[in-house]
Amino acid sequence: MSNTPSVPSKDELIAKALNELVNLYNTGKDFAVEQVPDVIRQLIIYNTVQLALMVAFSFLFLLAGLYAGSRLFKLHKKAVEQRVHYYDGGWMVGTILCPAGGTMIWAAIFFNHIGDLLKITLAPKVWLLEYAASLVK
Fold it and tell me: Taking the CA atoms of the chain, what radius of gyration do you get in angstroms?
């Protein structure tokens, strides 16, 4: 009798390898399925915060434009009262353009992001479907 261990056949090795691969696939699939709800929740929270910050940031442009316009108007009014002649009509143009420019930048940022922010807040499943569709395109 010989003490040599028996060598498994090719079929047994292939069957064992396939069995291990199937088990590995199933455990990986279970892990992915368990993590999907958490990943979706984190994605919704991240996009909600990002859009809320953009909407809040847009108000900085509105406030900056209004502040600059009011400061220019006060400077112009002070120059007229003191009869300083180096101020010309250009100051009034700046007084109008600063608030108008700030308002236009605010409106562009605000209205570009507020729709998605409301969609995430009020109907997150609809937003998620649209987001997934945009990724597929």
Answer: 33
Q: For the chain, give every domain's residue range.
A: 39-136
Q: How far is 60 from 105, CA to CA, in rounded Å?
A: 10
Determine the Cα–Cα distance for residues 130 and 117; give it in Å rounded to an integer.
Answer: 13
pLDDT per position as a tens digit, 24-48: 777 766 766 777 888 889 999 999 9
Q: What is the pTM of this model?
A: 0.63
> Using one digit for the tens of pLDDT, what is the confidence trace for 51-64?
999 999 888 888 88
Q: How far apart are the first and last CA of the chain?
A: 68
DSSP 68-119: HHHHHHHHHHHHHHTT-TT--THHHHHHHHHHHHHHHHHHHHHHHHHHHHHH
Encoded tokens for 96: 């109008």
How far apart, in whole angstroms, are the C-alpha atoms of residue 127 and residue 125?
A: 5
